[in-house]
Amino acid sequence: MNARLSILAPFAIFVLVMVISGTLWFASYRLELRQIENETRIITEQIGFRIDSWIHDRTTTLNHLIKDLDLVLDPDLEEFLKHVKAHTELVPGYQAINWVNSQGIIEVIFPITGNEAALGKNLYDHPTPSVPQTINKAIQTQRVARTPATIELFQGGRGFALYWPVYDSKEDLLGFVNGVFKVDELVRYCLNDDIVNPERFHYRLSESDSATVFDSILGYTDELLPPFSSPHKSNATVDVADRTWLLEVEPIPEILPGASFANYDYIIPTGLILACVLAWMTFIIVRKNDQLHLTTKRYLDLYENAPVAYFSIGLDKKIHRANRSACSMLGYSKEELTDRSVIELYADTPNGKQKALRAFEKSLLGDGIQGEELEMVCADGSIISIVLSVTWVKGLNGKIIESRSSIMDITEQVRAREKQVLQNERLHQSRKMESLGVLAGGIAHDFNNLLMIIMGNTELIRKQLPEDAEVQSCGEDIIIASHKAAKLCNQMLMYAGKVPLEFKPIDVNEIIKGMQRIFEPQTQPQIILEYKLTKNVPDIMADISQIQQCILDMMTNAMEALEDQSGNITLSTKIRQTPVPEGTEIQILASEQDGPFVAICVADTGPGVNNDQLPKMFEPFSSTKFMGRGLGLSSLHGIVRRHNGAILVRSREGHGMNIEILFPVSIPATS
Fold this sequence. Notes:
This protein is an alpha+beta fold. It has helices at 2-68, 78-90, 130-141, 183-190, 273-304, 324-330, 334-337, 353-363, 411-464, 471-496, 508-522, 544-562, 631-642, and strands at 96-101, 106-110, 145-146, 151-152, 158-167, 173-182, 201-207, 212-215, 219-220, 234-240, 243-251, 309-314, 319-322, 369-377, 383-394, 400-409, 504-506, 527-533, 540-542, 567-576, 586-589, 597-604, 646-651, 657-664. Strand 23 and strand 24 (657-664) form a beta hairpin. The longest helix has 67 residues, at 2-68. The model is unreliable at 5-11 and 626-630 (pLDDT under 50).
């Protein structure tokens, strides 16, 4: 019994090993055969797709050419050449695009270079009978028709041609648009060795109803070859106009499994149980490794191609990894970011380095950072606003090993938010100035009525008193004070926009030249007046007295700013195309028009004011000097507003002030 077991056991083990080894051999054979068949099918689909795409792109272009082309062509066919040139620049690859008249004669060829031999040829006399047959078929069907791909071209070589019949509005045949293609150009693009390896596959392109176009072994031939007989072949058909091509691909016999038994003869003699166990274990390990690799690849792909910028940062604050979005957002390459301190990327601003350091240190005590707004510096030096979120990654021992930072660029949102705040401030200031204008207008109107009573009664009293009475001088003082008060009321009415205006075209340069005799006597000796008037400024529609008042108010403000100090005052004019130019100007008053504008600028080298005080300058009775002054700039605001203009102010403490008023152009400027 034991002897039998000693014999049967090795035999049973041998049989088991042989069965397993044979199974492995057969499985390997089938697997390789399936891989070759799949590769053959994929290559066939790739070639078929390339051929179909190549033909489709060019036939579609020709079809668009037919649609774009006027049905009634001019005698010189210039319109045809213009359309052909435009379409062939978009999709190259034609041997030629021709215009063939209704008698079959080629009248126009594009491009002519290399195709001279075909010009003037009669296609009905073509040596290949299929050419006139194809033309007649196109006439009968009134649709595009194609020749076989084995015809000899007039310009040399083998190829095929498409014919589109073109009719006029009376459906009379005008001619044909003829697209000519060389077979070797098609083969070079669609059947090159980069796609199909001729050492592994045999492939053939044939007309479905006639001769072969190209064979990878025989080359260009027009023989009618039998179809492939391999059971592992793959076929594809490509429709080209009214004909069909057949694409056949088969693996060469030398690459098929079983062609040489030596590929698998090591399996059976070495098919020991240990080898089988090791192979099985290897299979399991490889499979697990593939799963791990696939998981890692998916994670890295998700990390790398995420729309959000990601950084992996160590405890030393150096960047270990950065994805594409991070590199694109900051303008650095991965090599430039790797091993670089992330703190260096933050800006030297209140929301930059120091805030980032505090956030990182604080995050170590908690669960990370969520939604921290910071500012970073890009490679080009520009500063962007970002939202930072940080989560910490722990190792197997529970200790933090690195952080995962996600960064979103919110620069546009921050700018929009700041712009909205600025717009709200401007709206508030505009409403405030309007309210002050209503108040000033009401006060001025009522005060004027009171002044009229005071002045009228004073005059009556003076007339009833003797001329040498002592109180006559008191009455005169009342009249003088009343006139000054009336002038003040008039300024308030100008600010409120209650003074009637007479609009007409005026030249601001001429007004300034006429006012120079007023400014110069009033200017202190230590102040230098400069005039920079742009030549040929266009006219503006305005009230001349109001414009004079604006210039006078700005000059008075500049002279008072200098007081007893020495300095310069510059009065200039210029042309602006937009109401809000780029720069540091603060817009006090906006215009409803887009431009162009004539600008009147007064700049002084006085002490200046800060940006917070600039809007208050145009409020009634607001002044940086002393109480009771400042109404001049208030009236200026009302005048410019009624002229639909704009006011820009630029100033900085210790660096003077520049006030610029803009008026819409009424007549275009001369060159």
